[in-house]
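agent> Task received from the user: take the single chain below, predict its 3D structure, and emit structure tokens. No templates, no multimer pairing.
agent> Plan: (1) validate residues, (2) run structure prediction, (3) serialize to tokens, (4) report one or two observations.
agent> Step 1 OK, no nonstandard residues flagged.
tool_call: predict_structure(input=
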Amino acid sequence: MVLPIRVLAVDVGTGTQDILLFESGKTIENCFKMVMPSPTVIIAERIKHATRREQPLLLTGVTMGGGPCHWAARDHALAGFPVAVTPEAGRTFDDDLSMVEQMGFEIIDVDEAARRAENPMLVHIELQDFNACAIISALQAFDVDPTVDALAIAAFDHGAAPPGVSDRRFRFNFIAETVRKEPTPSAFAYAAEHTPADLTRLRAIASSASRYVELSDSSPGIPLILMDTGSAAVLGSLEDPQVRDQQNSLLCNIGNFHTLAFHLVEGRIVGIFEHHTGEIDRAQLEDMLVKLAHGTLTNEEVFNSSGHGALILDTPSSINGESFPFLAVTGPRREMLRGSQLHPYEATPHGDMMLAGCFGLLRALADHEPGLAPLIVPSLLGKQ
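)
tool_result: status=success, residues=384
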């Protein structure tokens, strides 16, 4: 008899964190799920509250995603209120800590932070993308056992660019290198112990995940997969049968901050681009998608318009007589392409677009952990 397994999949975005507790043997629609504010949004609100109360800030913890919490901490310092931060937490704001100091933050060591944390007048906030205590508490509040057999977590990671190197170029160079080695969306997922050293945000999540294992009484050493959030959503869109059946497709995830598009032919990536959602409009996105399909989109064209970059590996003219690929769209900003002349299909894997990243994480876990695949894939295919 094969025992069922439980997997916690968490897709950490800029606006929301999307959480799925997968149980093999259940239809995925009956698995428990939550869509909650993202960690960076939660921490930003706490910082803004401290700013309104004119309180000093102490930031400890690990490197996490920036965006809202970055801007809130910057505004706190600009308002003239103290911000002290430990080195690892400080890399949330810039990999170069001298730049963090130029923002008006004070860099202090862990021992000094512990001493200052005893001051009831300051606001102490722990930075982390994966809050084990919060997720466990939420599950237990509904009498759901938080014990799991594997963890799969996605987040966007620029990577630790060397001083003087553009974060955008550094990230896309890493993307291009990954795709050239293995042109599949699952290539952007890593077992925790094999996560590249430059992906400091994902590696910090791995350290936070160990707390979940301990607090939930899960078995030590359970599999942990870490993945890029855009790639997780794109991979998850393939769990929609209408998308999965296509031989030639454009898969576009329009996130709150980043837009990522793959051109897939028979499951293989032949082209890719990534841009900032806030820097483009529908016409620009349509133009890039058309050029991606035709193999004419250039890296410099995307980078020079404030995007990350583009890579074309192959330029197939048509598949089965089709001149333009099937276009599938996911992401919280997918409305950007509604009514488009490109006739996009809004992918809804297992009836829930917001969980696309979590479904992609499950697929990546099955790809990276063959022993778990027989317990995961049937549920993804609706054949449990």
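agent> Step 4: summary for the user.
The chain has three domains: 6-37+131-232+356-380, 39-126, 241-347.
agent> Done.
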